[in-house]
Design a protein that fits this description.
elongated; mainly alpha; 2 helices; about 80 residues; about 0% strand; single chain
Length: about 80
Amino acid sequence: MTSSVESSRVLGSVHGVGQTGASLTRAVGPVVATSLFAFTLENNWLGGLGVYVVLIVITSCGIPLVYKLPEKEWEHKQ
């Protein structure tokens, strides 16, 4: 994140937004996974293990995005 900022004046804001996003993900992720597990267990979808199928599909959809990331860091302008 540091190398993606054009000016060091907004570096704190960018890190704050990043930390907020990470915190929200950490808060919402377990709730969604537990609810999905309860749903698949209640509906007897693959014996309650259908949550893993859903999570594998979600992860598989995200894998192509990794290959779109740049291989090198951006040049940081002072």
